[in-house]
Input
Amino acid sequence: MQPYRSRRSDRAEPEPTIHLKTRTVDPGLARFSHYLDQFFRIPGTDIRFGIEPLIGFLLPGAGDALTAVMSAYIVIASMRYGLPKIVIGRMVFNVAADYLLGSLPLIGDIFDFAFKANQKNLDLLNRHASGQHRVSSGDWAWLVALLTILGALITGGVILVITVLSKFRLF
Output
């Protein structure tokens, strides 16, 4: 019979980093994604979640908008790795889906625990970053257009929440 060892020592977690074939992605970006999506682990399980669903739960509407802006940082920072426009579009879609579906009362909070947009975006960055594609002004224009649409969605959602709260005289 083997002596008892804590599960915690068996599951030592390495620092979240990404290594690419031709380029190393900023470890701070991986750490930021880790904090947002996987910082906590439910004891006895492999279920992980980050601060993003907690912020969304504690600050309905506004918390989801705040975390969407935080998630957009990963997309903006990813531009320096020469990602194709379609990948940037997919990353913005992940952030938008996380914001829109996460904003729904109760169901959105459950969705936030399951859908890890930042980890998905980091996986896309890991898969497609080569540094071989030079970022052009057209790429930046594409990103600005997509982020403007995302910003309009966030602004519309915040206005909607404020309007609903003011109708019930809660704001």
The helical segments are 7-10, 27-37, 51-58, 62-78, 85-102, 107-114, 117-128, 137-167. The chain has one domain: 22-167. Strands lie at 40-41, 48-49.
